[in-house]
Task: structure prediction
Amino acid sequence: MQLDERIHLVGSGSFGFDLSDSHDCHVYLVDGGSELGLIDVGAGIGAAQVIANVRKAGFDPARIQHILCTHGHGDHAGGAAAMRRLLPDASVSVSRQIATFIRNGDEQATSVDVAKVAGIYPPDYRLEPCPVDRELAEGDTIAIGDLRLECIETPGHAAGHLSFVLDHAQERRLFAGDVVFHGGAILLQNIHDCSLEAIITSLRKLRGLAVDALLPGHFAFSLRDGQRHIEKANEALDRLLIPPQVVSAW
Result:
């Protein structure tokens, strides 16, 4: 699914467009010309379908040189090891806060253990350990061909959560992961590293970013005036309210 000249949606689960396995987040393909990158990789169960979707979009998967994960939850980073097997030349980059968890396949630190108990993942699902090539922090930039993505630390939904800003052709795109969604909604979960206070801080940081396209990890995205969704969340905070939950029940 082509979203603009340089961005394609190549994976998406039941909280999206059912392009790949039902457990997957949105998986974005970034076309940097000389090389490609993936932003988030899904849970791993549908990794082969994601690669098939890359081919359907007209790209050679061998050109994918970068795998970036917004955070360590299974639906976003759980497929890193499977994707790396399919793309042996691609480097994996995550925030420095979660790098050890991904390397070790730490299901407790990434809340995969409690997600399985809650029925979000199958009982036999496993977070496979995956090497991490680069640990990212606030202000770091990642070059994908002729494009540059800037890291913004946006914890709250999960510790070590990153968002990525892409400025190209006089437009700004925000790959927001799970920090904010269409309509200004958020996702608070009863897990050890989810923090309302941190989400509020992250939403305040994103205020005034002048985003044209908001590309979140699930549900609808916005290709024009994406900043309005971020502002809607902040306007709720201005009224001493909490932005609405994007999911009320699993």
